[in-house]
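U., I forgot to send this yesterday:
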Amino acid sequence: MDPRLARARAESAAAAHEAGMESDFRTDLERIRFAAPFSRLAEVTQVVTAGATSGVVHNRLTHTIKVTAVARAIAVRLLRAEDRALLHRLGRLDQVVVQAAASAHDLGHPPFGHLGERALDRLARNRFGLTDGFEGNAQTFRILTELAVRGPGDEGLNLTAAVRAAVLKYPWGRFHHPEPHPTGWDEPPRGAGHGVEGPGAAKFSAYTIDLPDMLDALAAFPGLPAARQTLECSVMDLADDIAYSLHDVEDFHRSGVLQFSPVSGEFRSWAADREGFADRDAQELRGLGQTPGAGLERLRRRLATKDAWIFDENRFAEAVVTVGEEFVDGVLAVPYDGSMAADRAISGFTARWIQHLISSVVLDAHPPVRSSYVMLGPDAWHQVSVLKFVHQYFILDRPDLAMFQRGQADTIERLVAGFDHWLSDRTDGGRAPRRLIDLVNAATFGYERIAAQHPEWLDAKTSELEVARMGRGRGIIDFVSGLTDEQAVAFAGRLSGASGLLWTTGAL
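Result:
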């Protein structure tokens, strides 16, 4: 879309909204919610699959619904409390755009959650030579602009520039745009540092093949600084953080996985000897392993190093005390038994804290590079960091979960290898799933376009054979990442010959 047309469309939508009329933004929201990738989220893992625990756990759809509710509440609060002229200077704030971005923000998550994301990233880079690998945020943008369809001849959902830009949580590519690339900045934005899996930005919002679409969306915001989220995107991103910090610990308390004794021991040990922990050097701290208190000390040091712009020693200690009193002693101390009293305790905590965090939101017209226009106040920021620590340390880092996830990673690897071998079969490749073939053709065309227009983005991989290999790889990754958890398991079984099921109600 021409940038001038994109801006005009965004302005007309905003005017219609202010006049109480139906806007293009509302159309965007409904296109996202009616798209097949949105429905798929009901069967995609948030942390663990529904059958992995006796309790009810969030999936990507329920998470998305709650993020959308929190995002709308933040937007409404800002529109009521802040200077409208300032909001306009920062790029405008429309609550429907915020809801659309929140509804779309997890569309790119593959089967099995972040585990599937890491597995696909390795396979994309190592097997197919796709240097920008796989990233859930970039996949979301690709779905919205290329892979989702809404009618004959359509590619993508044809959304306004405002909504497309509002999903760009990390508005850069893994290696390219903007220049100089954020990975080389003295202080990179959050997510732009090098990842553990390889060079380039750890987080990014557009693959090389989709960079023209990202540039087109951002062109509607000519005053936006490089690598800065739009105002509406920053609201969505913060809402995601708030929801994530609360409902996953709620899930695992209800499931009986999150136990009072180890969490309480961690909090009490660090609080009782914070000076002793602080005196230990890095090697000594590593040697402490899972010793109670060591995890919080490692968190404290990581925050002090990465987020010195907001980190405060006293506020961190106060956050440990507050979360300890409110969640550890106030909720975990009473084992969840399914009673209404137990439900009141955990749901009451979640409701209070969502309101507390929403009321702590502040607007900063000149934010630090690792922050955004909309952020939590210092006290709440430290509290959310501690809550996220509980989730990471006592749930995600569990050995039993790690074993479960290794099996899921193997399923992803078998799928990718199986489809690659199938498409390589000159005799039988034409019988591969039709959507897979469509996705490979679309990706190949995209790489041919980039090779012709921006060969410097492909690191000299512009021969016909290299472009075809990248197209096949991206198409296979697009296909596998678009499966539900159940489909991934079923398809892997069929490809290996282990499944006796042949006919299904849905076409491949």
